[in-house]
Amino acid sequence: MVIFESTEVFFPGSALHQLAGVDEAGRGPLAGPVFAAAVIVTEDFRVAVNDSKRLSASQREILAQAIQVQAVDWAIGQASVAEIDNLNILKASLLAMKRAIDQLRAPVVGVLVDGLYCPPDVALSCRSVVRGDQRIKMIAAASILAKVSRDNWMRILDKDYPEYEFSSHKGYPTARHRELLKQYGPCVHHRKSFRPVSLCLTS
Predict the structure, then answer these.
(1) Among 26, 27, 68, 148, which has the highest number of CB atoms less than 10 A from its own CB?
(2) Cβ-based neighbours of 161, under 8 Å, separated by 6 or more
(3) Overall pTM surpassing 0.90 (yes/no)
(4) Tell me, what's the pLDDT at 71?
(5) Domain tally for the chain?
(6) 80-89 pLDDT, tens per residue?
(7) Is residue 126 part of a domain?
């Protein structure tokens, strides 16, 4: 069982249900949007969450359903491939985070974000937490929702573009994906600003 840190050091005096945890999924893939999730939980939240990268796909699916039921509130945001190419992946990731935060309905006083940076223009106090998905309970929950939401999106995309086998690699730069990219060339859902994709455009 993962032992998570208290949020008191980041927001002294604030109860857990007054804070949202935020994380993204999909910075590394060569195709598809970047997703983010924002999650609010209470002290009674008993879902055995963990950093999504340490869980199997089936574990993430089960936990995502439990999170959606037990969380006070949760929301998903995304930034498109066009936005990734126009802004860069970091700015697009922060934009997806902001969109997730903006969709929360339950009131919060602060946001805890995984990583080094907080999204700009968020009308709430924000703290970035390095390795937050391993340290803070609601960030871990957000990492799971973001990952599962994005994986599901890529499975749907696979139906329209079966030749790329998106359902298996989810757009990540696996050897098989690179092989298919060279064979068929990029589709509209590939990130043209990413070098392996741009090289296929010029070859």
Answers:
(1) 26
(2) 187, 189
(3) yes
(4) 97
(5) 1
(6) 999 999 999 9
(7) yes
Task: Tell me how far CA of residue 18 lies from CA of 21, 98, 99, in angstroms.
Answer: 10, 17, 18
> Percent of the chain having pLDDT more than 90?
90
Distance CA(186)–CA(177), nearest Å, equals: 11
Q: What is the three-class DSSP state of 148?
A: helix
At position 67, the amino acid (one-letter code) is I
Count of CB atoms situated within 10 Å of the CB of 139: 29
The confidence score (pLDDT) of residue 202 equals 74
Rounded CA-CA distance 110/124 in Å is 6
6 within some domain = no
CATH number for position 82: 3.30.420.10
24 close to 96: Cβ distance less than 8 angstroms: yes
Residue 64 and residue 71: Cα distance in Å, rounded? 10
